[in-house]
Design goal:
This protein has 15 helices and 20 strands. The protein has 514 residues and is of the alpha/beta class.
Length: 514
């Protein structure tokens, strides 16, 4: 991953391939942001005028490259838009800094080192810039080049994919200050785990299936002191995990339930996280229509987020026990696949009539939720690319939050907004439960079509133990980005919800969630 350093150099004396400065959108044109004073001086105080002449306005997402004038040790200056100038005495929003840094990193692909002289008024600002720069530098290149002679030739000729920015030098910080050092270390740990999640999401399903995902988790557990337990098909049959087995029985790749347990000797609270890990979702017998299958390798994004969060908690040494449950299966059609009309007996003992095999995520989550609740955690959160209905409701950049406790739902929403992940609290209307009544089983896996995302949440709630605070994050929209990159968000897997879950674990460790 891209290296991060807290630089003692000034903007005028730093030696690098480029220097990044901020520009904001003012009432009368672009305004040079704090941190760029030395650069503005090198332009004889006319940096804003030059940028305006080139068409820059300071709008968010705007990137303008300039040849550096005499007086700077870099050949190129990159001005990134921060959006509107803050009100008097207010600092720039952390998310604006994060996105601007991400835009700059993407623009600097192929460079060895760049200095970031964005406005840093606090330790929190420095961490936001670091996160954005490191997230923006991400690239998934595992399947590009290699021993391919044509690809190697393209790279030599400058036509192949560019390597990510190699080093981010963060200016305006205090390298010897413990708070700044801790912020930088946290940013690196969290972003490396987000990028681990992104890599898993982007990995083709012929290489990432339940068994191989479990192997990745096991290896990471050994590296970071996390206890890992993997239940294979035989163990799942013995334990009666009917949801996982029912979803996975149509595939040659059998299902797995993976438990990752990070514990701290001084922990007073336990947070359980459950992730939907459908490594490929064809829809099963209820086959998805053409045009809806191509990105279904991303249907394990919830499990990737949970996995990344547990490892991040271990790396940060958080004083809280964090247990992750990865419900892994591949949903395929075959002569052995679950059929619409089949009834599954879940781990909880409840029976479920399967009306649609493409509503499979709730089935694997139900088994994992029941098992996680048996350990009586103080709170439990499940994360899943669960419903297209949530995308229709909230779009592609916002995830929905449902919960059996309003205060817990509010806390998660506030945390998500704080770390820069767009989210929205959603209800669990009791009247929608009746639509899942089954004449054959205890409950059906489908209900009313309208409000389908809420129906899925109500289904999951049936498998949560009494007295346990529970929340459900439906990340179907933001988990996988199909359009052009923006800010620090790449094309493909995004690592959605990891920052929210890590912050939730930190708050739980600090006792801020009661």
């Amino acid at each position: 991953m891209t290296a991060l350093t807290l630089s003692t150099a000034g903007a005028a004396t730093l030696r690098a391939d480029a220097l990044v400065v901020g520009v904001a959108k003012g009432a009368k044109g672009p305004v040079v942001a704090p941190g760029a004073e030395a650069v503005d001086k090198a332009f004889d105080g006319k940096l804003a005028t030059v940028l305006e002449t080139l068409g820059a306005s300071g709008a968010e997402g705007e990137v303008t490259k300039l040849p550096a004038p005499a007086g700077l040790k870099v050949p190129v200056v990159i001005a990134v838009g921060l959006g509107s100038v803050p009100e008097k005495d207010a600092a720039f929003d952390a998310e604006a800094l994060r996105r601007a840094a991400g835009c700059a990193s993407r623009a600097l692909a192929g460079s060895k080192k760049a200095g970031f002289a964005l406005p840093v008024a606090s330790v929190e600002d420095a961490e936001a810039v670091a996160e954005g720069a490191l997230l923006g530098a991400y690239a998934f290149t595992a399947y590009q080049g290699g021993e391919n002679k044509l690809a190697a030739k393209d790279k030599k000729n400058g036509n192949g994919p560019k390597s990510p920015l190699a080093e981010v030098a963060l200016l305006g910080t205090k390298p010897r200050d413990k708070a700044f050092k801790a912020a930088a270390e946290r940013a690196v740990a969290v972003v490396e785990e987000i990028n681990r999640a992104r890599d898993l999401i982007n990995t083709p399903p012929n290489d990432l299936y339940p068994e191989s995902f479990a192997a990745v988790a096991t290896a990471a557990g050994k590296e970071h002191g996390i206890k890992v337990q993997v239940l294979d098909e035989k163990a799942l049959v013995k334990g009666g995990f009917g949801g996982l087995l029912g979803v996975g029985q149509g595939s040659t790749h059998g299902p797995r339930l993976v438990k990752l347990a990070y514990t701290h000797p001084k922990a007073e609270k336990t947070l359980a996280l459950v992730g939907k890990g459908i490594t490929y979702d064809s829809g099963g017998i209820s086959l998805k229509p053409a045009g809806h299958n191509e990105t279904m390798k991303c249907d394990m994004s919830g499990a990737a987020a949970v996995f990344a969060t547990v490892v991040a908690a271990a790396r940060l040494g958080l004083q809280v026990n964090v247990t992750g449950w990865l419900a892994l299966a591949e949903n395929m059609p075959s002569g052995n696949a679950t059929r619409p009309g089949d009834v599954l007996r879940m781990y909880s003992g409840k029976t479920v009539e399967v009306l649609n095999t493409d509503a499979e995520g709730r089935l694997v989550l139900a088994d994992a939720l029941t098992r996680a609740c048996e350990e009586n955690p103080d709170a439990i959160v499940d994360v899943a690319t669960l419903t297209g209905a949530m995308v229709l409701a909230l779009g592609h950049r916002t995830f929905g939050i449902m919960a059996n406790d309003d205060a817990f739902r509010t806390s998660i929403h506030e945390i998500a907004e704080e770390v820069g992940e767009a989210s929205w609290p959603m209800p669990l209307p009791a009247d929608l439960r009746k639509g899942m009544d089954s004449p054959t089983a205890d409950i059906a896996n489908m209900g009313e079509r309208m409000g389908g995302g809420l129906v899925a949440g109500l289904f999951l709630q049936e498998f949560v133990g009494e007295g346990i605070a529970w929340a459900h994050l439906d990340i179907a929209g933001p988990a996988f980005h199909e359009g052009a990159p923006y800010g620090y968000t790449p094309k493909g897997g995004t690592g959605s919800a990891v920052r929210t879950l890590v912050k939730l674990a930190e708050r739980t460790a600090a006792g801020d969630l009661g």
